[in-house]
Amino acid sequence: MAKLSQEELLAQFETLTLIELSEFVKAFEEKFDVTAAAAVAAGPAAAAAPVEAEAEQDEFDVILTGAGEKKIQVIKVVRELTSLGLKEAKDLVDGAPKPVLEKVAKEAAEKAAESLKGAGASVEVK
Fold first, then answer.
1. Region label for 117, one of left (φ > 0), alpha (ψ between -120 and 50) or beta (otherwise)
2. How many CB atoms lie within 10 A of CB 124?
3. Does the chain have fewer CB atoms within 10 Å around its N or its C terminus?
4. Packing angle of the helix pair 71-82, 86-94 (nearest 10 deg)
5. CA 115, CA 98: separation in Å to the nearest integer?
6. DSSP secondary structure string, 44-113?
7. b/e string for 86-117 if b means 16 or more Cβ within 10 A?
């Protein structure tokens, strides 16, 4: 049997009636132990996937928006979180708003934000 190209197969399916096509799908499912419903459902699900991916973000940025009144405490926390030197941490705090951590897990971002807020800083998690 000669191998048919995708275009040739589609041309053959175009000639079938809906009943014949339905019977073919059932026979195909039985022969290869698959379900066409999963493939059909994947179409709309694939279109919705980017929306869900944006909704369920897995990487977060912790952005220092302000040092508050306890600037020295905030600098200490920034140093603990980032392992920056004193000058770099001070420059980061002085230059707020600036990202302290980028592309970290949700738990790490929340923990860092709590630490910074505890030191008196204004923080945003994106």
1. alpha
2. 13
3. N
4. 120
5. 16
6. HHHHHHHHHHHHS---EEEEEEE--S-HHHHHHHHHHHH---HHHHHHHHHT-SEEEEEEE-HHHHHHHH
7. eeebbebbeebeeebbeebeeeebeebbebbe
Q: In what order do the strands lie in the sheet with 122-125?
A: 98-104, 60-66, 122-125
Token pair for 90: 């001070």
Q: How far apart are CA 80 and CA 89, in angstroms?
A: 10
Chunk the chain into consecutive blocks of 10 residues (it has 126) and report each block's average pLDDT, rounded to whole numbers: 83 86 86 69 52 65 86 89 87 86 86 87 86
Pair of tokens at residue 34: 């698959």
Pairing, β 122-125 against β 98-104:
unpaired
